[in-house]
Amino acid sequence: MTSRGAVGLFEDIVIMDEKKIMAVIEAVLFAMGDSVGLSSLSHVLEMPEKEIRGVIARMNDKYKRADRGIYIAELEDAVQLCTKPGLYEYLIKVAKAPRKYVLTDTLLETLSIIAYKQPVTRLEVEKIRGVSCDHAVNRLLEFNLIQELGRLDAPGRPLLFGTTEEFLRTFGVKSLGDLPMLNPEQMEDFRKQAEEEAGQKTELNVEI
Questions:
Q1: How far apart are CA 103 and CA 112, in angstroms?
Q2: Averaged over 24-35, what is the pLDDT?
Q3: What does pTM read for this prediction?
Q4: Which of 79, 157, 193, 204 is the most buried (most CB within 10 A)?
Q5: Across the strands, what pairs with 78?
């Protein structure tokens, strides 16, 4: 066998190995349905997470074709097999439509503060907004956009809050590091809007 022939055979083996790796990743993600940690895939495939990320990137290159209806979403240190957003209208014809929720300005402001300041207590969020955020936090918990991360080691041991994988999926980001920078002016806008909101509530109470 010539040296070129040996090299060609080796390349074919490598290609076949990657195809098998892709098949395993796809099978695991399809069977699990939910997100799967890269550490779990690393254990199953006996490969470093960095190499698995590379394989997933190449899989997503293939999924970008018009004749494919899925892609792999990357969520921090986990991945999930998902339907392409553009095919949602066809999916709901045969599957139960997921519950829809509306994010008001108040919810978005509270969620933004938690996303950028996490882990953060309810009181810290209220100091930034200037008004009570009990309702907003409870709604965000209900929508699974935030979660409890434990308790702060301080008097009263207040709960700490942070974002969830659902938050990443909803806003289409791989990790918190992909969030746009939030400048001080935007934080000041949060305060002003919260003050206006508080003023509107006061007026409403007076009218009642």
A1: 12
A2: 93
A3: 0.62
A4: 79
A5: 37, 75
